[in-house]
Design goal:
Layout (H helix, E strand, L loop, with lengths): L1 E2 L12 E3 L6 H18 L6 E7 L2 E8 L6 H8 L3 H9 L18 E7 L20 E7 L2 H11 L9 E6 L1 H4 L3 H9 L3 E4 L1 H9 L5 E2 L10 H6 L5 E5 L2 H7 L1 H9 L4 E2 L2 H17 L7 H5 L4
Parallel strand pairs: 7-8, 7-10, 8-9, 10-11
Antiparallel strand pairs: 1-2, 2-5, 3-4, 5-6
Helix pairs in contact: 4-11, 6-11
Length: 298
């Protein structure tokens, strides 16, 4: 599984993708071989949970746990293989080859796991993701396109991404350029863009019309007023450091209170924009029984 969020966000709070879409085949092979070596060296029989990180095409190991994780049901539903049942059989003496589990199965569709976060139940809690897990459940979206699968997963988690309306941008200096193509795509798709002063200046200078809106301490009407007036349909807020996080706290609180979908990491922003643009273009979501997908697993 490939995590959508960066390393440093608790794996239980990160959206995950199967199969990976940005990890090279060479790195995937390295992951497979490293996993085999770790399992044999640690003498683990059954399920093994490993978290890797990739930096500049170099593979790092974050942690190895000789246990199942709560994403086992997601992997099982994606592949059609009951991993928990298989693991018990192996622990009782069965061989993997006897169970037909020689290698990872191939499938032409994309599954996305999304965390269910209970922020609307706890007023005052900041929605920023961190190493501390905050989610209370998981949902899954599946289709032949990553964008549609991500949209479905967000919908199941309680966040309907908009296919029209106004997008608010408050993006740190490091991420502004990295999101340039996605922000341009939003504009070309007909979305109205509003942003804090620095973000608006950056995108306007890159020929993307972007209306400046006040921060809370700069005047009225400010961005929180716009959210309260239901004038904002989607919030992209990627803070950097404690000061910017504190400045944007009231924005995130207002978005949560008024049920405005919000993302706080660059990777999630890219995934969300990918999803809403796909659905906007195709106008509807595909629906298919999951058993039909299993027929294509090889």
């Amino acid at each position: 599984m490939e995590h959508v969020e960066e390393a440093g966000i608790h794996s239980g709070d990160s959206a995950c993708i199967m199969p990976p879409i940005t990890i090279s085949e060479d790195l995937q092979n390295q992951i497979i071989e490293t996993t085999k070596k770790l399992a044999l060296e640690l003498n683990v029989i059954g399920l093994l949970n490993i978290q890797f990180a990739i930096k500049d095409d170099e593979l790092f190991i974050i942690e190895v746990n000789p246990r199942a994780s709560r994403t086992v049901p997601f992997v099982s539903k994606t592949t059609g293989v009951s991993l928990a049942k298989m693991a018990v059989k192996v622990m009782l003496g069965k061989k993997l080859k006897d169970l037909g589990l020689i290698e990872m199965k191939k499938f032409p569709f994309v599954s996305v796991k999304e965390a269910v976060l209970p922020f609307n139940k706890f007023p005052g809690v900041d929605i920023l993701l961190s190493p501390e897990m905050k989610s209370t459940g998981e949902v899954m979206g599946i289709s032949y396109n990553f964008g549609e699968s991500y949209f479905k997963a967000e919908l199941a988690a309680g966040d309907r991404l908009p296919v029209s309306g106004t997008v608010f941008l408050s993006i740190n200096d490091i991420h502004k350029a990295q999101l340039l193509d996605e922000v341009r795509a939003l504009h070309e798709a007909g979305f109205k863009l509003v942003a804090t002063r620095g973000t608006a200046k950056f995108y306007t200078e890159h020929n993307i019309p972007c209306e400046m809106v006040y921060k809370v301490n700069e005047g009225r009407p400010n961005i929180v007023d716009r959210i309260k007036d239901l004038d904002i349909d989607f919030v992209i807020n990627t803070p950097l450091g404690k000061v910017t996080r504190d400045d944007a706290y009231s924005i995130r609180q207002a978005a949560t209170r008024y049920h405005v979908p919000t993302v706080t990491t660059m990777s999630a922003a890219k995934a969300a924009i990918n999803g809403l643009l796909y659905v906007k273009k195709n106008r509807e979501l595909s629906v298919k029984p999951i058993q039909e997908y299993y027929k294509e697993v090889k």
